[in-house]
From TrEMBL, chains A, B:
Binding site for a divalent metal cation: H151
The organism's place on the tree of life at top rank: Bacteria
MF (Gene Ontology): metal ion binding
Matches recorded under InterPro entries: DinB (IPR007837), DinB/YfiT-like (IPR034660)
Keywords from the UniProt entry: Metal-binding
N-terminal signal peptide: none
Family per similarity comment: Belongs to the DinB family.
Organism encoding this protein: Pedobacter ginsengisoli
UniProt name for this protein: Damage-inducible protein DinB
SUPFAM superfamilies, per the entry: DinB/YfiT-like putative metalloenzymes
Any Pfam family matching the protein: DinB
């Protein structure tokens, strides 16, 4: 029995998904999230919330500060610290829907750029994300994606309560 | 260059996550979702909603009818049809929190049982889920998980609006 390369050596169980397919899966979700941002009226995007939660722009700001810099950190081992992240400082310079969407698109490109630089074996290695969260890189990345799905879904409840039909969850085009 | 087995032949890009780790990741999410069910008062679980959406028990019923039977379908190629699924018929025999939690635990076991029977190569093969949704098995399974995260997050907004702190998203123990 021979191994081909280091990537195959790490397989102790069947392949579930490879890194290209996972990136495509994530970017599909990001297209949905972008449509949810677009569906909000400008004022409600920054000011509307339910039960004391953050407005949707605040949730998006958290996603943004985690996802792009997170992939960069995994690719380069250079991490922003948790205290520099928008949802901890509460500071953000993004105060219009257009600016939020522009920042969203910048992060989409940043993810693609740094994803291509992640070393082959890195996904199975333990990293210390943002100087604080320790785990296998695949788990850290799934956290970014799951956190996006989680907060986006909360935004869809805001939309429903405003009488606005949210973009379809299943449409990733 | 030699391949070890069919699983490694399918690797055209680096491994992101193997099937054991993905199952553990999912079951971690299922522990969170179970705690969200528990956090609801009995009446609100079945009757409370926002913006015309389904009560949380209805969302859980959708998750249940998709996840256990979905893994069984991928493992055995025997699928329930979409019309037999609870959220389409609107029928469910589960009408108490205890019964909902019991059904949840049954599905947890069903997922573990049938996951172990999924053939090694199956995750990369195209399947027709529930006779209706075509895609690679990994994508179908990610849909089950993402759909659970999505609807659970909606439930956390219900809880917040009821003045109840939801279980922590990040705690998967």
């Amino acid at each position: 029995m021979t191994t081909i390369n280091t990537a195959t050596e790490t397989i102790l169980a069947p392949l579930f998904i490879n890194s290209n397919d996972l990136l495509n899966h994530w970017q599909g979700h990001r297209r949905v999230t972008r449509r949810v941002i677009e569906a909000f009226p400008e004022d409600e995007l920054f000011n509307y919330s339910i039960g004391g939660m953050r407005p949707f722009a605040g949730l998006i700001s958290e996603i943004t500060s985690m996802s792009g810099p997170g992939v960069k950190g995994i690719a380069t081992d250079e991490w922003t610290t948790i205290n520099e992240m928008d949802h901890h400082t509460g500071k953000t310079e993004v105060n219009s829907k257009d600016a939020l969407l522009m920042e969203w698109d910048r992060i989409t490109d940043e993810i693609n750029t740094f994803w291509a630089q992640i070393p082959t074996e890195k996904f199975q290695e333990v990293v210390l994300a943002f100087g604080q969260y320790e785990g296998e890189a695949y788990g850290i990345i799934l956290y970014f994606i799951d956190n996006e799905i989680h907060h986006r879904a909360q935004g869809t409840v805001y939309l429903r309560s405003l009488g606005i039909e949210p973009p379809a969850f299943w449409n990733r085009d």
